[in-house]
Specification:
The protein is built from 8 helices and 15 strands. It is an alpha/beta fold. The strands form 3 sheets. A 6-stranded mixed beta sheet has the order 2-3-1-4-11-5, sandwiched between helices. Strand 7, helix 4 and strand 8 form a beta-alpha-beta unit. The longest helix has 22 residues. Bound molecules: adenosine-5'-triphosphate and magnesium ion.
């Protein structure tokens, strides 16, 4: 039987979340510290541990069949692979930053200036769209120190909280690209590997849905039931079961994490008691 080859980042910001996602799909593999490739026990898959920059190219060439990589790295690589699913972790943005003392009104201020970046393609694309001509300096790391040492007037780099910029005397002035981790696939998968990918996708999506939802159980007096039920969407509609206590019911439903606290307040106000909320492991619908 064929195995699909999944490339993930060996060591870095995407590694833990990638491995966690695989484990949450009930796919396990031997402790792989220091290994380049490992087979999975209970799923027809092999995991390749690579530098994130190499993942798009390996997937394009078919060395790996699928991979988990940041959209920033994917787009910058220019490699021809399919983006199959956004994974919701590794979120960051690619931003333009200038020294704090520099006045900045718009991107036009970058005209004729030099910008240091590890993302020349994405940045050049953005500048072209804005009709701005700047001088790009491609450097592979520690971009944020470039203005301080006189290498460039501005930088374009990954930002998540902005603390690195702050400590280097820079201010973020323009967001040019938003990124998160994505699952990519080779364009030439065999039918058998496509079928394995579909199975994996089914599990990824079930885990993602579960993370976005919680299971809620509550008790309500029967005369308040209608009001409580109106607040709860459920997947189809909430489950209502009679309690041993006369005139009371237990209501079960699924709610989204997003509006969780507001929902709880409204339910309490509507007469719900003994509210129990638990995580969902998998959700399929
Ligand atoms: P490698 O050794 O694999 O080449 P790296 O140093 O290039 O690793 P990391 O710093 O581990 O890469 O980041 C991997 C990816 O995580 C980034 O390309 C980006 O998509 C994402 N990411 C999320 N938040 C951040 C952040 N605050 N800074 C940098 N990258 C981030
Ligand atoms: Mg890298």
């Amino acid at each position: 039987m064929q195995r699909i080859k999944l490339a993930i980042q060996k060591k870095g910001r995407l590694s833990d979340d990638s491995i966690r996602l695989i484990h949450e799909c009930d796919i396990s593999f031997p402790n792989s510290i220091g290994r380049l490739v490992t087979p999975c026990y209970d799923f027809p898959m092999e995991i390749l541990f690579l530098r994130d920059d190499d993942i798009p190219g390996y997937v394009e060439d078919g060395v790996a069949d699928i991979g988990i990589v940041g959209e920033n790295v994917l787009v910058e690589s220019g490699k021809n692979v399919d983006e199959v699913l956004k994974l919701g972790f590794g979120k960051c943005r690619l931003s333009l930053a200038v020294p704090r003392g520099m006045s900045y009104q718009s991107i036009n201020d970058m005209s004729g200036k030099s910008i240091a970046t590890s993302y020349p393609k994405i940045l050049q694309n953005y500048l072209n769209q804005q009709n701005v001509e700047a001088d790009l300096h491609t450097i592979s790391g520690s971009v944020e120190i470039a203005p301080g040492i006189g290498l460039a007037d501005a930088i374009c780099d990954i930002v998540s909280t902005g603390s690195t910029l702050l400590s280097n005397g820079l201010k973020e002035v323009e967001q040019i690209f938003a990124s998160e981790a994505v699952l990519v696939a080779s364009k030439n998968l065999s039918a058998e590997k496509k079928a394995i990918l579909d199975k994996l996708l089914f599990r990824f999506v079930a885990v993602q849905k579960a993370e976005k939802n919680k299971y809620i159980l509550l008790n309500a007096p029967n005369d308040k039931l209608n009001e409580v039920i109106k607040l709860l969407p459920g997947i189809n509609s909430p489950t209502v079961l009679p309690l041993a206590r006369e005139g009371w019911s237990s209501v079960h439903s699924v709610i989204t994490v997003k509006d969780f606290w507001e929902m709880i307040e409204k339910l309490k106000a509507a007469g719900a008691e003994g509210i129990l909320v638990t995580p969902i492991e998998k959700l399929i619908y």
